[in-house]
Amino acid sequence: MIIIIDSNVTIAALIKDSITRKIIVDLYPHAYYPEAMASEIEKYKGTIREKANITEHEFYGAYQKLFKYIKIIPDEEIIKHKNEAKRMMKDIDSADHLLLAAAFYFKDVCIWSNDPHLKQQNKIVTYTTAEMIKKIKGFLSK
Do 17 and 66 form a contact (C-beta atoms < 8 A)? Predict the structure, then answer.
């Protein structure tokens, strides 16, 4: 199964060495992130650094380390799915259409996000971190 990871999950993994980060590492090579959403992490870089109490250099080190375990989905791969995703999310939360567009590119896919709005669409199964922990319990490396 392919797992499309939302920015809120990657940001949580950058802030703290937690179960979220462990799951991302253990999901490799099944975790994906849309290239078009990279600006989300950059947008919250200051908040991430402040909460994690790290320097800019440490932030970029953590970012590079985390993204060794997450494959980037190039924009050109999801562009043909963007309009359908926008239509589906227009009355829910249009900002999340990129996650759906990325998910539509794959078969046997789910989204990992802590955004409750994503559960309002019915095309792609969406798991919160708590649900993801339950789903993969027993498969995490020790």
Answer: no
Other beta carbons within 10 Å of 50: 11
| CB within 8 Å of 108: residues ≥ 6 apart | 1, 2
Amino acid at 48: I
pLDDT in tens, 27-61: 889 999 999 999 999 999 999 999 999 999 999 99
pTM: 0.90
On the 0-12 / 13-18 / 19+ scale of CB atoms within 10 A, 56 is: exposed
Angle at 71 between CA 69 and CA 74, to 5 degrees: 160
Q: Please, which residues have CB within 8 angstroms of residue 80's CB and are 6 or more apart in sequence?
A: none
Residue 100 lies in a domain: yes
Q: What CA–CA distance (Å, rounded) separates 100 from 78?
A: 9
What's the pLDDT score for residue 17? 93
Q: Does residue 141 fall inside a structural domain? A: no
- Residue 37 within a domain: yes
Are residues 118 and 96 in contact, defined by beta-carbon separation less than 8 angstroms? yes
Which pLDDT band, with edges at 50, 70 and 90, does 138 fall under? low
